Amino acid sequence: MKKETVAMAQQMRQHIQACKASGMYVEEYCKLNQLRPSSYYYWRKKLLGAAKPNTGAFIRLQPSAPVGSVEVVFASGVKIYFDNLVPVEYLKQLVN
């Protein structure tokens, strides 16, 4: 990399960190610091793009431990209440 490019990369890295720390919108920060938003986004992608995980992919999440309660109300008015969540298969057996 050329010396000027390395210096610009370092300067933009500092701007990216400062913008993030400021809590401002990028456009706001750029206007205040006389930067073009397109340059900011270009350098952010160039400097941080490789460090980001693939954000276009879905990941499978495991449900957390069951908490809460369940209440089943039948049309006849009969209610069944459970203090904790119960397996769906168990509820199906009760209904049948």
Folded structure, characterized:
There is one protein chain. By secondary structure, the protein is mainly alpha-helical. It has two domains: 3-51; 66-96, no CATH class. It contains four helices and two strands; from the N terminus they run αααββα. It has helices spanning 3-22, 26-32, 37-48, 88-95; strands spanning 70-73, 79-82. A two-stranded antiparallel ribbon has the order 1-2. Helix 1 (3-22) crosses helix 3 (37-48). The longest helix is centred in the N-terminal third of the chain and has 20 residues, at 3-22. It is rod-shaped. The model has no long low-confidence stretch (mean pLDDT 81).
Helical fraction equals 40-55%
* Number of structural domains: 2
Please state the structural category.
mainly alpha
Q: For the residues shown, what is the average pLDDT?
A: 81
N-to-C span: 72 Å
Shape: rod-shaped
Low-confidence stretches: none
- Cα-atom radius of gyration: 27 Å
Which SSEs are present, and which pair or pack?
Elements: H1 3-22, H2 26-32, H3 37-48, E1 70-73, E2 79-82, H4 88-95
Helix pairs in contact: 1-3
Keywords:
96 residues, mainly alpha, 2 strands, rod-shaped
Give a short summary of the structure.
The chain is mainly alpha-helical.
